[in-house]
Automatic annotation (TrEMBL):
<dbReference type="GO" id="GO:0016301">
    <property type="term" value="F:kinase activity"/>
</dbReference>
<feature type="transmembrane region" description="Helical">
    <location>
        <begin position="333"/>
        <end position="352"/>
    </location>
</feature>
<dbReference type="Pfam" id="PF12555">
    <property type="entry name" value="SteA-like_C"/>
</dbReference>
<keyword id="KW-0808">Transferase</keyword>
<dbReference type="GO" id="GO:0005524">
    <property type="term" value="F:ATP binding"/>
</dbReference>
<dbReference type="InterPro" id="IPR022215">
    <property type="entry name" value="SteA-like_C"/>
</dbReference>
<dbReference type="InterPro" id="IPR007371">
    <property type="entry name" value="TPK_catalytic"/>
</dbReference>
<keyword id="KW-0067">ATP-binding</keyword>
<feature type="coiled-coil region">
    <location>
        <begin position="115"/>
        <end position="146"/>
    </location>
</feature>
<dbReference type="GO" id="GO:0009229">
    <property type="term" value="P:thiamine diphosphate biosynthetic process"/>
</dbReference>
<dbReference type="GO" id="GO:0004788">
    <property type="term" value="F:thiamine diphosphokinase activity"/>
</dbReference>
<keyword id="KW-0547">Nucleotide-binding</keyword>
<feature type="domain" description="Thiamin pyrophosphokinase catalytic">
    <location>
        <begin position="193"/>
        <end position="228"/>
    </location>
</feature>
<keyword id="KW-0175">Coiled coil</keyword>
<keyword id="KW-0472">Membrane</keyword>
<dbReference type="InterPro" id="IPR047795">
    <property type="entry name" value="Put_SteA-like"/>
</dbReference>
<protein>
    <submittedName>
        <fullName>Thiamin pyrophosphokinase catalytic region</fullName>
    </submittedName>
</protein>
Length: 372
């Protein structure tokens, strides 16, 4: 295998994908690539991935590498973080099997992640899954005890957006969020719920032609454009009040409120909707199982567990709703529509006086022809 192309570098994949324009080689430092990161890389049209770390360690069955290989994206793993000192954006490199060359000189080598290697790692990860599950449950319960009072007795900031008695839709850029959002587009247009984008979830709403009413999160994976549209901004702060995301808000000359709370931004978005009296909370793209959280880099899901326990029946999780019902138009549906549309046309033609006269003339002509 030989690939020649320019490189773009980024230690945070979610930030790098915003700079990729296609046909480049993405140089990343991403241990256990998750499915969302893989999908984002694929959408940019890159030719290959050079990873300073291991794309799949075997710790758990992360879905990203398989997604990349399925889309014919070449992967070299474990080249080392020194690659970031040896390359700059725009440099042209040549990949020959597991070796990387710049200006004719070899600068690094790694391990090609092919199908055979991936299957081997996946087998190991499945064997490790029970042990990881034990650790995950222990962490979840341990932190749940510590965070119980903080989660169950949160005090969200005052907001201008009217939520009481309204439906609320919370959008997170999680697995299959695009398909799920597309599946409920008619619900959004008909019910017009309050739209809350969690970080990049605000950009997801914009992709589908909807503007968020509220944006909440760390503000690290959302576009400047989305932040400047006029939505209410709420920065997720640590329980002690520190809010690193405020720096970006101030840099854009915007204002925002802080919401100090443990856990994830999607959890406090649900808490906000619940505490402000929403009638129904629908969530798209949220993280709700062990693999989701391991891919997100979290050892447990105490805040999510407690949040969902608290808001209970008021929450509808739309994750995977696109698989529940596929409403794509099929050929038989088109024929049925045409047939249904023709019925009134035929009736009108039959009962219309000009058509009746034509039918009589045809009958008279037929009689003459047959000698009646």
């Amino acid at each position: 295998m030989e690939i020649n192309a320019e490189v773009k570098l980024g230690k945070k994949t979610k930030k790098l994908v915003k700079q990729l324009t296609g046909r480049e080689i993405a140089v990343i430092d991403h241990t256990d690539i998750d499915q969302l990161a893989a999908t984002s890389l694929i959408d940019t049209g890159i030719k290959a991935v050079v990873n300073a770390s291991s794309s799949i360690t075997g710790k758990y069955p992360n879905l990203g590498p398989e997604e990349l290989l399925t889309n014919n994206i070449f992967i070299i793993d474990e080249v080392g973080t020194e690659i970031f000192q040896k390359l700059e954006d725009g440099d042209k490199i040549r990949i020959v099997d597991n070796e990387i060359f710049k200006a004719g000189s070899k600068i690094a080598e790694g391990r090609v992640l092919d199908r055979a290697t991936l299957e081997e790692k996946l087998k190991i990860s499945r064997e490790n899954l029970e042990e990881e599950l034990d650790k995950f449950v222990e962490n979840t319960l341990e932190y749940a005890k510590e965070e119980k009072d903080l989660i169950l007795d949160l005090h969200p900031p005052e907001i201008e957006t009217q939520i009481e008695g309204e439906h609320v839709l919370i959008v997170v850029r999680g697995q299959d969020y695009k398909d799920d959002l597309e599946a409920i587009t008619s619900y959004i247009r008909e019910i017009e719920p309050v739209l809350i984008g969690v970080d990049g979830g605000a950009d997801a709403l914009l992709e589908f032609g909807f503007e968020p009413d509220i944006i909440i999160g760390d503000m690290d994976s959302i576009s400047d454009y989305a932040l400047q549209l006029g939505a209410e901004l709420i920065v997720h702060a640590y329980p002690n009040g520190d809010a690193p995301g405020m720096e970006r808000i101030h840099d854009l000359n915007l204002t925002a409120q802080k919401f100090p709370a443990p856990g994830t931004s999607e959890d406090i978005a649900m808490q906000l909707a619940y505490e402000k009296g929403s009638e129904l909370i629908t969530a798209v793209g949220t993280h709700s199982n062990m693999i989701d959280f391991l891919e997100k880099g979290r050892a447990g899901m105490s805040s999510t567990f407690l949040t969902r326990l608290k808001i209970g029946a008021r929450l509808v999780d739309a994750k995977g709703v696109n698989k529940l019902y596929n409403n794509r138009l099929r050929p038989k549906h088109i024929l049925q529509i045409i047939a249904a549309a023709m019925i009134p046309v035929i009736i009108i033609l039959v009962v219309a006086p000009p058509m009746q006269q034509m039918m009589r003339l045809l009958l008279i002509k037929l009689r003459f022809s047959l000698g009646f």
